[in-house]
Specification:
This protein is an alpha/beta fold. The chain is built from 13 helices and 11 strands. It has helices at about 1-15, 35-55, 70-80, 110-120, 120-130, 175-180, 195-200, 210-215, 240-245, 250-285, 295-300, 305-310, 315-325, and strands spanning about 25-30, 60-65, 85-90, 135-145, 150, 165-170, 185-190, 205-210, 225-230, 235-240, 290. Helix 6 links the parallel strand 6 (about 165-170) and strand 7 (about 185-190). The longest helix has about 35 residues, at about 250-285. It is globular and about 60 Å long.
Length: about 325
């Protein structure tokens, strides 16, 4: 409630736009939860670029590291116009628009190259980014959030049977919840900022995320086994309020859109080196053991999800687009 009250006060005290035909000075209020360094740097680059492209008529005010709440709260603030922008996981956005659930389908992408090819194709991502327009927000661009894999506190996951009965944290995504159930574990949806304590206290046995959860969120202090099964590549999405977009001039809007896309390319240039560094830190500093299982068994266990997907009129056409872009497509 304190965070929400603060956001209300922020909205009431901030004058974002002035009327008239000429472009007015704009300050975009951008809040986000905790993130890995490459993503933080990319968002900072967005702020620099948009200021450069508008000769200073657009600036960005930052509210980082969950100052205004978790990802769901931030999305709701953008919806209501209390915030101009945020960056959240595409997995969370499934609860706002079902089409985002396609990104949580396990083993959807062959690898990073396939992922980038799909996400850079406006024919695929354009309709998805606009899917929340009626709810007061749209996507501007995506960021790589890495490959999600399992990490655990008590024992390594080397085969599907090792997951049986374990309490695993997932995003608030029906698709991810279904995947965990098919693998024999018990899914627990909770905010990222609750995971460390839950692992420490035994409320959770594990979670699934990229390597930065081990270092940035310091989960490596309480979870010593990381299984590289790479079950999903869920993009982060930069959101902007439609109320904000409507008040921008065409020139300002183009500057914001271009800056967002360029910040994605900047993040890509940093990503792989940062992942390698996170794995090294996890091993050297925290003693994390990395396991590479045979994923064929995992893929077989979630096969019912592919069968069910054929009946999903929203997600299945996008799934077919994504698979058609695979180098393995026949």
């Amino acid at each position: 409630m304190k965070k929400f009250a603060f956001a209300l006060a922020l909205a009431a005290s901030t004058v974002m736009f002035m009327g008239g035909a000429e472009a007015a000075d704009v300050n975009l209020r951008f809040a986000y939860a905790s993130n890995a360094t490459p993503t933080k740097e990319a968002m900072a680059k967005f702020g620099e670029l948009v200021e450069q492209k508008t000769n200073g008529s657009i600036t960005v005010s930052w509210f980082p590291d969950s100052q205004l709440g978790g990802e769901r709260e931030l999305v709701e603030m953008v919806q209501g116009g209390l915030l101009d922008m945020t960056k959240v996981s595409g997995g969370l956005l499934e609860s706002f628009s079902p089409v985002y659930g396609v990104f949580s389908v396990p083993y959807l992408f062959d690898g990073q190259e396939h992922f980038y090819k799909v996400m850079d194709d406006p024919a695929v991502t354009g309709p998805i980014f606009k899917a929340t327009e009626a709810q007061g927000m749209v996507g501007l661009t995506y960021y790589d959030s890495g490959a999600r894999s399992f990490y655990t506190s008590k024992k390594p996951i080397e085969k599907v049977a090792d997951l049986k009965g374990l309490k695993i944290r997932v995003l608030q995504s029906p698709t991810l919840i279904r995947m965990i159930q098919l693998l024999g574990a018990a899914p627990i949806a909770m905010s990222q900022d609750e995971v460390y304590t839950s692992l420490q206290q035994g409320v959770l046995d594990g979670a699934e995320n990229n390597e930065f959860a081990l270092t940035v969120a310091r989960h490596a202090e309480v979870a010593k086994f990381y299984t590289i099964d790479v079950h999903s590549r869920i993009p982060d999405v930069m959101l902007i309020s439609t109320k904000t977009l409507e008040k921008l001039t065409p020139e300002q809007r183009k500057a914001v859109e271009d800056a967002a896309k360029e910040s994605t390319e900047y993040q890509k240039s940093l990503w792989n080196a940062a992942v390698d560094a996170a794995r090294k830190e996890s091993t050297d500093k925290f003693g994390v053991k990395f396991i590479t299982p045979d994923i064929a068994e995992f893929q077989k266990a979630v096969q019912p999800m592919y069968d069910d997907l054929k009946n999903n009129k929203v997600q299945y056409p996008v799934f077919e687009q994504i698979r058609a872009a695979s180098s393995q497509a026949k």
